[in-house]
Amino acid sequence: MRRAYTRCVRNARFEKRAQLQSMEPILIVMFLALIIGLLLLFSLRIGDREVEVTATKEASKQDLLLLGRIANLPELSCPKSESAKTYCIDMFKAEAFRQLMKDDDVARSSYYPLLGASEIAVEWIDMDSNGASINKSMVLYDNLNSSGVRPAVAYSTMYNPASPGAARMFATVTIYRRAG
Amino acid sequence: MKGQLEVSFQWVYVLIAGGAFLLMFFFVFKSCTESGDERAQGMSVRATANAISLAAWQEGSVNFTFAADVSCVGDVLTLQALEGTARSQLDQVPAFLPPRLAGKSNVVTREVALTQTGVPSIRLGNVVYALDERTRYYVQRSHETRLKHVLGNSPSIIYVDSFSNLQVPGGVETVVLVGDNLPAVTLPQTKAKVYGVTLSEPQAIFYTASNDRLGSPKVELYTGDYMMVGAVVAARPQTYRCAKENFARRTGAVLGIYHTRNENLAIDFQNIPDPRTQVCIEPLMRANLLIFNLIDGRSARLDDLSTATTPLMTHQRTLQGLGCPVIA
Q1: Dihedrals phi, psi of B141, to nearest 5 degrees
Q2: How far is B232 from chain A (nearest CA, A)?
Q3: Does B141 have pLDDT greater than 60?
Q4: Residue in B57, B257, B328 closest to A79 by CB
């Protein structure tokens, strides 16, 4: 009885080993597939990261180019006689442009190829009647529906043709775009 | 023996499973490549349109490589992939493009402004011209100054004294003949598509030509040198009209901004009791009336712009002389 039991246990062990042996190639294939899959995921991740970095660099470059273009648009820039040295924005043109972008959807869409999904604001330092400086700002174009934004800033001159002596004030033009 | 058989049977299963996997990967890869090709085709046309749209905002010259058919679909300038159905619109950009873009193209952006010596110019916007290396323009020498002024020197433009015995090189896909009296011209022997443009003040007459004869003329009005060069580059009345209308829209927007600016300036001046500023109100308002008459809805009436140039520049000179803010 005991011998029969021992034989039965031994047979069961043999069968198990044989089963394991027959499973061996499958296990090897699965292991290799797992390693290849992990390698693929890893390389994809590295590729994504590289694309992300390049895109951020490219976007910053494009923002700076755009800021230069904005200050040069006939829609915003000072008369040629006033803008020989620096980027110069005519305050009254800026106000007219702001109104046009706010009221006229067709006109706003025609500037989309240039300005895209962005918000463009201009800030400048003006003087009150007592000579004290006041910060003023104006949103020229708003076509951005996003909370996460990245700004790019350029320095400019704000020209007021109505002020005595046609004052020129220090200004910054900021463009906000969706981050990421 | 039985165990060996079982093991080899397992290998067969593994091979079948592996083969199935490989087949699946192959089909996935193939479908990805096919959709990638389709996407690339669409992206190429879209990228072309984007590149032109962006180049339109800054004066200068850029080289691009792209392939597209240029047409005017429902008054919208459209680029279509040379092979396939991908399309992209250039609906907002005043771009004068040849009927077909096939190889490397030189895109030139020129600023359009009203100018007079000694007076600040009145800027009106930009116009884009693309010259494709596989389009050859044969231009009668009488138009050389005008074209060179706008397009500069280009290997695509050849100035000729007469159109007889033109040797069109192989690889050229489109030929545009520009002259004073095209119906009398013998067309060059070429496989390229031939277009003809006659420039006579104040009209541009387009001909669609084949090697048998010149087709019936289609007449389009043009304004100024920039529009005339546009007629030459576009070579077809429909594409010319599309770009011209886009230019009129931009000019209309710019003039609209000048109008609002000057109106607000005049209101501000009325509130300042300084005789030096009071002097500026009348010439500003006169200039504004002229600008108002040029704006037709949201676009400028380009044909009137040429006649309004002298009076507008006279107002600009007056304002400058009085020490007032100029029109623009």
Answers
A1: -60, -25
A2: 25
A3: yes
A4: B328
Please check whether residue B178 is in contact with residue B199, taking contact to mean a CB–CB distance below 8 angstroms: yes
Whether B50 has its CB under 8 Å from any CB of chain A: the answer is: yes
> To probe the interface with A, which of B257, B260, B268, B291 has the most A CB atoms within 10 Å?
B257
Q: What is the DSSP letter of A117?
A: S
Ranges of residues in chain A with a pLDDT under 50 are none
Instruction: List the alpha helices (DSSP H) in chain A.
Output: 2-72, 91-103, 105-110, 112-115
Note the pLDDT tens digit of each residue in B225-284.
888 999 999 999 999 999 999 999 999 999 999 999 999 999 999 888 777 788 999 999
pTM (2 d.p.): 0.80
Q: What is the spatial distance between Cα B9 and Cα B13, in angstroms, rounded to a whole number? A: 6
Mind listing the pLDDT tens digit for each residue in A25-38? 778 878 888 888 89
In this structure, are residues B288 and B262 in contact, taking their beta carbons and an 8 Å threshold? yes
ipTM over 0.95: no
**Could you give the CA distance from residue B136 to residue B160 in angstroms, rounded to a whole number?**
12
| A153 class by beta-carbon count within 10 Å (0-12 exposed, 13-18 middle, 19+ buried) | middle
Q: Which residue's structure tokens are 């389709």? A: B38
Asked whether B195 and B182 are in contact (CB, 8 A), the reply is no
- Residue A111: phi, psi to the nearest 5? -95, 0
CB B238 within 8 A of CB B75: no
User: What residues in A contact B261, CB-CB < 8 Å?
Assistant: 90, 92-93, 95-96
Q: Phi/psi of residue A40, each to 5°? A: -60, -45
Q: How many other CB atoms sit within 10 Å of the CB of residue A174?
A: 17
